[in-house]
């Protein structure tokens, strides 16, 4: 759910994105982002909650308002809301700090790039290269499920079993990128074959 109030529309020129930025891109951890959102007092439609994914309205608040129209990297999200193949940070979900936001959440080495007025543009992570940890992550997906997921992912496990190097990757939303560089309000206007309710009648 995007924020629609004028206060969240950033004074940001897309052309500035392709030159040398006046200021470096902002960086903030997921936990710190939740803290900023909760302390902002903004009337979000979805209250920011530790351990839950960021909504579009949260991402827009961070990049448009908190960081004053600056592209922003949010990193180290909780493990349980991210795909099984992302590499953990080894924090074990615990911390010696007294702040409850610093305890109880195991995080993964991932990052999302948020841009003013459009929110998430790209996302990436380090990939888990340890066979045993990856196998356990897949087993955790099956908890409480009647399906056996591992056989369908054996080919992926084999890439680690027979040799793998530490590596990472990222994905760029091409339609979102086109929307961003053309400053188009609705993503449907840049998708070649947009699909939405009542658009294709059968």
UniProtKB/TrEMBL annotation:
Pfam families: tRNA-synt_2. GO terms for biological process: asparaginyl-tRNA aminoacylation. Gene3D superfamilies: Bira Bifunctional Protein, Domain 2 (3.30.930.10). The keyword Ligase applies. GO terms for molecular function: asparagine-tRNA ligase activity; ATP binding. This is Putative asparagine-tRNA ligase, mitochondrial. GO terms for cellular component: mitochondrion. It comes from the Eukaryota. PANTHER family: ASPARAGINE--TRNA LIGASE, MITOCHONDRIAL-RELATED (PTHR22594:SF34), ASPARTYL/LYSYL-TRNA SYNTHETASE (PTHR22594). The keyword Zinc does not apply. Keywords: Aminoacyl-tRNA synthetase, ATP-binding, Ligase, Nucleotide-binding, Protein biosynthesis. Residues 20-195 form the Aminoacyl-tRNA synthetase class II (D/K/N) domain. It comes from Smittium mucronatum.
């Amino acid at each position: 759910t995007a924020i629609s109030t004028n206060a969240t529309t950033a004074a940001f020129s897309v052309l500035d994105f392709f030159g040398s930025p006046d200021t470096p891109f902002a960086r903030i951890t997921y936990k710190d982002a939740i803290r900023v959102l909760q302390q902002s007092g903004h009337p979000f439609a979805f209250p920011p909650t530790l351990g839950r994914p960021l909504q579009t309205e949260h991402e827009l608040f961070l990049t448009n308002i908190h960081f004053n129209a600056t592209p922003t990297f949010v990193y180290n999200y909780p493990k349980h809301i991210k795909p099984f193949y992302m590499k953990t940070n080894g924090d074990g979900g615990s911390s010696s700090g007294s702040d409850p936001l610093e305890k109880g959440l195991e995080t993964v080495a991932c990052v999302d790039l948020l841009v003013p007025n459009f929110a998430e543009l790209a996302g990436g992570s380090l990939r888990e290269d340890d066979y045993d940890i990856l196998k356990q992550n897949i087993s955790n997906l099956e908890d409480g499920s009647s399906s056996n997921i591992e056989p369908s992912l054996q080919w992926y496990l084999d890439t680690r079993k027979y040799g793998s190097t530490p590596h990472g990757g990222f994905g760029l939303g091409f339609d979102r990128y086109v929307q961003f560089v053309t400053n188009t309000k609705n993503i449907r206007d840049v998708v070649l074959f947009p699909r939405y309710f009542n658009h294709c009648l059968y």
